[in-house]
Amino acid sequence: MRSDGTISIWFFIGVSLLVNGVLIFLAGLYQLSHPPAVKVVLYDLHASVWWGAILLIIGLIYCIRYNPNRA
């Protein structure tokens, strides 16, 4: 994936997924601890927590797999 000192684009995609996953996950946790006054229909599914965790895991896998310092 890496040739002549270049860094794979998949590493940066992994970093992007990781950062977005952390932000969405933390926003979902905040929403759990401070529920809104008016809840949407599917509020009980806590989609932001699930999607944030999924993005975080996928981003972590990409960052580990395409790490430029990995031998």
Overall description:
The chain has 71 residues and is mainly alpha-helical. It has one domain (9-65). The protein contains 2 helices and no strands. It has helices at residues 9-33, 47-65. The radius of gyration is 16 Å and the shape is rod-shaped. The termini are close together.
Topology diagram in text:
Blueprint lengths: L8 H25 L13 H19 L6
Quick description:
Helices cover 62% and strands 0% of the residues.
Descriptive tags:
0% strand, mainly alpha, 71 residues, 2 helices
Provide mean pLDDT, rounded: 92
CA radius of gyration: 16 Å
Compressed to H and E, one letter per element, the order equals: HH
What general outline do the C-alpha atoms trace? rod-shaped
Give a count of the beta strands, DSSP E runs of length 2 or more.
0
What about the largest sheet? none
Give the count of helical stretches: 2
| Proportion of residues in β-strands | under 5%
Q: Low-confidence parts lasting 5 or more residues at pLDDT below 50?
A: none
- Roughly how much helix do the residues carry, as a percent range? 55-70%
**Domain module count:** 1
Which class best fits the helix and strand makeup?
Answer: mainly alpha
